[in-house]
Amino acid sequence: MNEAEEVLPVRLVVASHNPVKIEAVRSGFQRMFPHSQIEVISVNVPSGVGIQPLSDAETLQGALNRARAARRQLPAADYWAGVEGGVEEKDGTMSAFAWVVILSAGGCGKARSATFDLPPALADLVRQGVELGEADDRLFGRQNSKQQNGAVGLLTGDVIDRAAYYEQPVILALIPFKNPHLFPE
Fold first, then answer.
1. What residues contact 5, with CB distance under 8 A and at least 6 apart?
2. According to DSSP H, which parts of 33-77 are helical?
3. Whole-number pLDDT of residue 141
4. Nearest to 146 by CA among 85, 95, 102, 61
5. 73 vs 7, which has greater pLDDT?
6. In 33-161, which residue ranges form alpha helices assigned H by DSSP?
7. How far is CA 176 from CA 26, 75, 85, in A?
8. What is the rounded CA–CA span in Å between residue 71 and residue 43?
9. Strand 93-104 relative to strand 108-112: parallel, antiparallel, unpaired?
10. Which sign does the torsion angle of CA 149, 150, 152, 156 carry?
11. Number of helical (H) and strand (E) elements in the chain, helices listed first
């Protein structure tokens, strides 16, 4: 950064107390806006959808609901971010993914993560009504893995952990804010 570039403060509200989601959002913002000083505040808000969203649409709605609820709870911020993980079944295979929604006073950005198939043992637990994080803990003998490496970390041997997995859609959801001239309000 040269002397002409000033550090811009950004007040960001993450709609979760999950440290993985907070870090992914903070890191994505810092990478997209490297000359900003990011102040992150986390709030616990409901998703308004099932504890384990079971479709693409329900997962996106959960992320949007979280971002909107965070904005209602702390309206004096620059951005509000909602992150929601979900699953969807197609042709007998259950896949996992996440949606990220970022709101500002005048805009909205959203992006979906990469998708990966769950092994049958995990999918069977989710079909029985077990939330994916709990299913991970049962299958892998862990505790609270959703606030650590998550299913993606457990299944990839931490080549991709949950924070890294969520960071990319955070970055992609920030495209309209990085390029506001291309996204009229």
1. 35
2. 56-73
3. 84
4. 85
5. 73
6. 56-73, 120-127, 132-140, 150-156
7. 17, 20, 22
8. 10
9. antiparallel
10. positive
11. 7, 6
